[in-house]
Amino acid sequence: MANPIISRTELATGVVAMSVRGVVAKSAFLLSLAALSGFGVFLYALSVGISSSMLHTMAIVSVFAGIGLGLISAFKPQFAKALAVPYALTEGVLLGSISLIMYRIYPTVPLSALSATFITAAVMLTLYVTGVIKVTEKFRSIITSAVIAIGILYLVQLGFRLFGSSLPLLFDGGMVAIGFSVFVTLIASFSLLLDFDNVEKGVAFGTDKHYEWVYSIGILSTLVWMYIEFLRLIGYLQND
């Protein structure tokens, strides 16, 4: 993803260099932890009847906790290994909370969003490996700028939500909101290409092995973002 977790790290060579296999293994491990955490939160909250307002609070807290842990990992890579598991568990709380919120409205949407996320990730990997889409500096600049703009917009929307309001048109489920959601989902998906390219460049540079945790955290953050956007988009389409 075009986020600080990967793109802002200062690479450092080491005696033992990172490898693609190492990043894949660590990414799979963190993804499994996030899935288990999310599934656990989902089932527990469903069984005890935690209110949607509490789930929203849990989601917001986990978002900011995840951002904090991710930024520390990016700017202090030596802590990435220790923070990787807490980060994955925190992302799991976010996933479980928002999935249950959507499940109570449209029961089939979470599974559809999960399927769409993994299918899209596989497609992005194929497009990158085969060279159909190349991550040029121009491509990177466009996606990074879009991610920053979306992030600012989401922060503004969060501010509106805290006062019981919302940005007009973009989040009301109408045609403009659907179009905007499609755009954000595409940006989130293309961000995964930047993750793949960052890993490839890190390996070519001989970056120290402990950076595998930094890259894995970044990949997990992108996949979580993709899932959230698919959840929103498919929810809008169900509403229609």
Automatic annotation (TrEMBL):
<feature type="transmembrane region" description="Helical">
    <location>
        <begin position="214"/>
        <end position="237"/>
    </location>
</feature>
<feature type="transmembrane region" description="Helical">
    <location>
        <begin position="175"/>
        <end position="194"/>
    </location>
</feature>
<feature type="transmembrane region" description="Helical">
    <location>
        <begin position="53"/>
        <end position="72"/>
    </location>
</feature>
<protein>
    <submittedName>
        <fullName>Uncharacterized membrane protein, YccA/Bax inhibitor family</fullName>
    </submittedName>
</protein>
<feature type="transmembrane region" description="Helical">
    <location>
        <begin position="111"/>
        <end position="130"/>
    </location>
</feature>
<keyword id="KW-0472">Membrane</keyword>
<feature type="transmembrane region" description="Helical">
    <location>
        <begin position="28"/>
        <end position="47"/>
    </location>
</feature>
<keyword id="KW-0812">Transmembrane</keyword>
<feature type="transmembrane region" description="Helical">
    <location>
        <begin position="142"/>
        <end position="163"/>
    </location>
</feature>
<feature type="transmembrane region" description="Helical">
    <location>
        <begin position="84"/>
        <end position="105"/>
    </location>
</feature>
<dbReference type="InterPro" id="IPR010539">
    <property type="entry name" value="BaxI_1-like"/>
</dbReference>
<keyword id="KW-1133">Transmembrane helix</keyword>
<dbReference type="Pfam" id="PF12811">
    <property type="entry name" value="BaxI_1"/>
</dbReference>
